[in-house]
Amino acid sequence: MAGFGRERGMGVTVRVLLFAVLAERAGAREVVLHLPAGSTAREAWRNLPAPLGEDELLRQAVRVAVNRSYADWETVLQEGDEVAFIPPVAGGNGAHPPSPLVEPVQVVLTREPLSVEPWVQAVSGPEAGAVAVFVGTVRQVTGTRRTVSILYEAYEEMAVAEMARIGQEASERYPGCRMVLAHRMGRLQPGEVSLVVAVSCPHRAEAFACLREAVEAIKARVPIWKKERFEDGEEWVGMGA
Is pTM beyond 0.85 here? Predict the structure, then answer.
């Protein structure tokens, strides 16, 4: 790990994590910054190695997390904080602030192939009047370009926590519903399953609504990225390489 930034008297040392296109542009996935006391997340960005830290337009498309929770750019950093700069995630970049994590739900990040049936069985039970399932797969054609493969990567610790938050929020809005969220990491080929969300609820209307809200939240909030390889090149989805 390399150190960047200016030491101006007493200050704080923070660990910065970079992902996807940000890591590529910085040439590193992790750096250590030595910052003046009272520095904010915004100032941490500005102390990243050039040209990344100088790119204000890029910063406006990025979200920041401190100690694995989304934070504001004006958050004051403390000694030993873990700061993550999060580019647009694989499915979108707009979301309301997450609620505090209360109880973990059934969340899986895996590099093994995903099957649907085990997750349907996991949420099924005599109290369920409906089971709804979303299965996300890698499509072969995007617009006029043919996909060869997709590489999924994640800020895994935060991804698990954020998916658990989504499940907790759903259980509060839809009492009696149960949920499993499973996402595959690594390189996938067209036709392979990347995401399974299974929901059971007492009634079908609740199951459909709960499933849709959960899938949209995963796409908007969970720090998972995909690098799509085409026949004529490759790029990070949501932010060109």
Answer: no
